[in-house]
Each structure stands twice: as C-alpha cells, then as structure tokens.
Design a protein that fits this description.
about 0% strand, disordered N terminus, about 375 residues
C-alpha cells in the first residue's frame, strides 16, 4: 500500500485548500481580459496602445486550461479520499453533487442564451443571431458543436464549451476509478495523457479541433488527477513540494509568465504544438502543488483576501461575464462613453468587470447557494468514516 499523506486524525475534517480559490479568480481574469476591449471602431483597433493591450491578453485562454488542471486535481483528490476513507466511491452521490453544482447555473445560461437574449434583441430591434443546435448544449456537447458547425454567434453560449468538456470527463472517470485498484490509478491518468498527445498529433493542423475537442484537453484534467493521486497517497511526494527551494519556485512562475506571453512563438512548429497544452498544464499543476504544500512560497494566495473571496463565485463569473460585457457595452454605447481608446481599454473594462462581479455575486447568493447547501448533504465527509 502506498505511503499515505493523510493523517487519520484529520480524516473527518473538510478537505479544503485555501490557496486555490484565489487562483480560480486569476484564471477567470485571464479569460475576462481575453474577451475585453471590444470595439466597432477600426481607428481604435489600429491604435498602438490598443494593439499592445490585445497582445498582452491574447493568451487569456490559458485561464481555461488552468481551470481544467485545477478541476482535475480537486475532483480526483476528493474521489480518492472518499475511496481511501470509506472503502468505496459513491457514484450516485458524486453525480448528485455535480448536478447540484453545475446544472442550475448552466441551464440558466442556456435559457439566457437561447431564449432571453433572442427576446431582448427582438424587443430592442437588434439583428437576431441564428441559434446553434440546442441539443449539443442540453447534453453538454457544445464543444463539438463549435467543431462541427462554428462558434455560436451568441457569445453567452460560446463560453460553455469548457463546462461541457469537464462534464464529459466526469461522466466517465468515476466509473473507471471504481473498478480500478487505487494503486493503478496513475496508469489511468497516464493513459488519458497519452490519448491526448496522440490525438493532438493526429489533428495538429486543425486549429478548431485543438481549441475545442475533449481529447485536446483531457490531458489537463488527467495531469490534475495524477497530481492529486500522489498528493494523497505519497508522503514523500508531499515532502518534496513542502521543501521545494524558493529559487525553483520562482523559476516555475517565471516559466508560466513566459508561456503567457510567448507560447505561440515557443510552440511555433507543429511537432512542438503537440506538447504545448500538456506542458503548460504540467506547469499549472506545479503551481497548484506549490501553493498547497510548499513551506518556502514567496507568497500564498490565501493572503489575498479579495481574490480568495472572488474565487468563490468564479463559476458564475465565468459563465455570466460575457452577459455582463454585453450589458456594459450597451449602456456605455448609449451614453457615448466607449468611443475613445482609453474609454474602451479602461472605462468599459472596469464597468464590465464590476457588472460581472455583481451579477455573479447575486447569482451565487440568491440562486446557486440553496443548491450548494443541498449539495453539501451528499458529501462523503458528512457520513461516518470507517477506520
């Protein structure tokens, strides 16, 4: 049996990593700024400052890739903890928890994207957008809709592709973990990484496939899962990250910054692009492990109370931020406050972020919270744990 990193006296305590909430918000901000600075003005788009701002945020999609690694780490950690502490994985309760966390807001977004926004466009005399095939969205297959057809014109729906990929992963992985002995879990995750690499190699010239297909990103989730496996089963692994040298930690963050700004140049060749997503995912996993375990961190995200608080509403921020951007752009256009370069970069961006935070908070406080309270009742940590 692998050496355990779980103290028996700690088993009933809620599993919570206080440094990771803030990183959720960082990942969201990357996506938010990637979607920011919209303008119809060609003259603004040709301004040097505008081009520079877009260049700084062009790799904001890395925020989604970080979400995948983080989700893989957290969900797999909980599943392994449940099996080790209770002797089994309760599949029914797992899916009840996922449904209560994901479905209410997800299907609200579908209503907004397919129904409410179409109605509002008609009411205000705007051009109607053709709706994508609703069946892809209802059954969490919207990433394939983008591959088969195109990006949905309604951007509120467009951001849901990553939620679809995560749900596809979670539809399969618990059943595998139930039947496979715990000691063989690394082979499960390594196999998923291999499938991702082979699939990316076979589709390396298909940009849409690389950007949206489940197999393109399943390696991220698996890397998160592999990190979780060793974090929960190997005290030696944990001690390695506890004692990680401060210089090495800084080097990891420097590599991530380099990837954020220069990944396109670094992975310019097809052979290298095969490894682009898994390599960056591995760096993200190192950040997660460093933040959770290291004693030599030059900072801990838990100390940033604003980011940590905002991280708790990140699901709503991610799903609803494009809606907030649409509202902000509409209001500022009516007021004539987004006609200049600095208004587009600073005023509209600030208004949109404020609206996104407000909408996500209201969603979390008055819509998602009742489902989350119910979800907590199905946690294995609320049941008696067998020694």
């Amino acid at each position: 049996m692998p050496e355990t990193a779980i103290d028996k006296s700690e088993q009933k305590r809620r599993i919570f990593f206080p440094d990771l909430d803030g990183w959720r918000f960082v990942a969201f901000l990357a996506v938010f700024f990637f979607h920011s600075f919209y303008t119809d003005s060609e003259s603004i788009r040709n301004e040097t400052a505008y081009i520079f701002a877009k260049r700084l945020t062009v790799n904001g999609t890395l925020g989604v890739e970080f979400f995948f690694v983080l989700s893989g780490f957290l969900i797999i950690y909980l599943l392994i903890a449940e099996r080790r502490q209770t002797g089994r994985i309760d599949i029914k309760n797992f899916y009840v928890r996922r449904i209560l966390r994901i479905f209410p807001l997800y299907y609200l977004c579908l209503f907004i994207g397919f129904v409410a926004q179409s109605f509002l466009r008609y009411a205000f005399g705007f051009n109607q957008h053709p709706n994508p095939d609703w069946r892809y969205y209802v059954f969490f297959l919207s990433n394939f809709d983008a591959i088969v057809h195109a990006f949905p014109a309604e951007a509120t729906l467009g951001v849901l592709w990553s939620v679809a990929i995560e749900e596809q992963f979670y539809l399969v992985v618990p059943f595998i973990l139930v039947v496979v002995p715990v000691r063989f879990y690394p082979w499960v995750f390594l196999s998923a990484i291999a499938v991702s690499l082979i699939s990316r190699a076979n589709n390396i010239d298909n940009g849409m496939w690389l950007a949206r297909h489940t197999f393109s990103f399943v390696g991220n989730l698996a890397i998160g899962g592999l990190s979780a496996y060793f974090a929960i089963t190997s005290a030696r692994f944990v001690r390695f990250f506890e004692d990680l040298d401060a210089t090495v930690i800084k080097a990891i963050y420097l590599l991530v910054v380099i990837m954020v700004f220069f990944q396109s140049e670094i992975f310019a060749y097809s052979a290298l692009r095969v490894f682009q997503v898994p390599f960056i995912a591995a760096l993200f996993a190192l950040i997660i492990l460093e933040q959770v375990f290291s004693k030599n961190s030059f900072f801990k995200m838990r100390n940033n109370r604003v980011f940590s608080a905002c991280g708790q509403i990140t699901y709503g921020l991610y799903c609803l931020h494009v809606l907030a951007m649409s509202i902000g752009h509409f209001i500022l256009s009516k007021l004539g406050l987004n006609t200049g370069l600095w208004q587009v970069i600073f005023v509209e961006t600030g208004v949109n972020l404020t609206l996104a935070l407000l909408i996500a908070y209201l969603s979390y406080r008055f819509y998602e919270a009742p489902f989350l309270r119910l979800k907590a009742l199905f946690s294995f940590q609320n049941r008696d744990i067998r020694a």
